[in-house]
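Predict structure. Chain length: 323.
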Amino acid sequence: MGSIMERGRLFTARRQPEVACAGIITNINLNESAAMTVDLHCHSTASDGVLAPAMLVSRAFERGVRLLALTDHDTLEGLDEARRAAEALDMQLVNGIELSCTWGGATIHVLGYAFASDAPALRAAIEALHHGRWQRAEEIDRRLAAKGMPGALQGARAVQQELGDSGNAPARPHFAEFLVRAGHVRDRAEAFRKWLGSGKLGDVKQHWPALQDAVGTLRAAKAWISLAHPWQYDFTRSKRRRLVADFVAAGGHALEVVNGMQPAEQVGGLAILAREFGLMASVGSDFHAPGDWSELGMYRPLPDDLTALWKRFEHAQPPAVTS
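Prediction complete.
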C-alpha cells in the first residue's frame, strides 16, 4: 500500500494554499480547549483522501486532535471504521459529511455534523449522490476518451483501489493520477489545470442537488450545518455574500471561517460575513493527504469573538426553523 508520505504524493498537488442515532457524538468534553485539538473537516479513502478512516483517526490523535469529524464527500462509508478507532483511543468523534450541491451555476459544498445517520432523507440523498458520482465518473471517462485519453475510468478506479477498498466512484484526484501515469500530463497540477479543474472538461456538475435541497436534507437529519470553504469559490464579494444569504435562508447554521492555511485576510473576510449574518463558525484542515500545507489539526486561529459551532454539538437536535 506504500508509506503515508507515498500516499500523500498522489493528492498533494491540488492542496496548495491560495496565499443509527447511537453514535451521533462520542465522549464530547465541551470544556476542553479547542486550540489545535478540533478538526471538523477531513477526508479518508471513503472519498478522495489517501488514508483509511482508522489510519486517519490515529494520525489525528497523534497530532493532538481530540474532537474530530470525518467529512467524506457524499458518503457515510468510513464512519463506522472511524468510530471504532476513535473509541479505542477514547477520542471524541462526531458524525460528519460534505454534501455536494449547486448554486449560481457552481458546485458548492455544505458540511453536516452530529446528525442521525439513519435519517431516511439523508440516506436517500446519499444513494442519489452515489449514483450521480458514478455517472459523473463515466462522463469524465467519455470526455477524456474523446480527447485521445482512453481507459480513464478503469485507470482511476485502479488508483482508488490501491489506496483502499471503496464502493464509491473514483474522484477527480484519482483521474488526475491516472493521467500522470498514462503520460498525458507531467503532474497532477497540470491535470487539474488542463483537464479536471473548475470550468474544465472534467468539471461535471449536472448531477448535484440544489443548495436549498442539500441543506434541507441535513436539517431533516437534525444536523448542524456549515458552508464549506466559502472563499474557494471563484465569486465576487457580492456574489459570495448572496451565497451566504441564500444559505442562511435555507436554514444553515455556520460558515467554515477557517479552512486549513488559507490566507489570513480570507479568514478576516469570512469572519465579517459570519458576524453580519449572525452565523456560528467552524474550523478544519480539509485534510486529504499529508503535505507541507495540509495536515490534520493544522489551520489558522479562529477569531475569538466568533461562536464555535462545535460548542453546540451537545445538542443532538438543532433548533427548528421558525416562520
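Summary: Residues 128-162+171-196 form a domain with the DNA polymerase; domain 1 fold (CATH 1.10.150.650).
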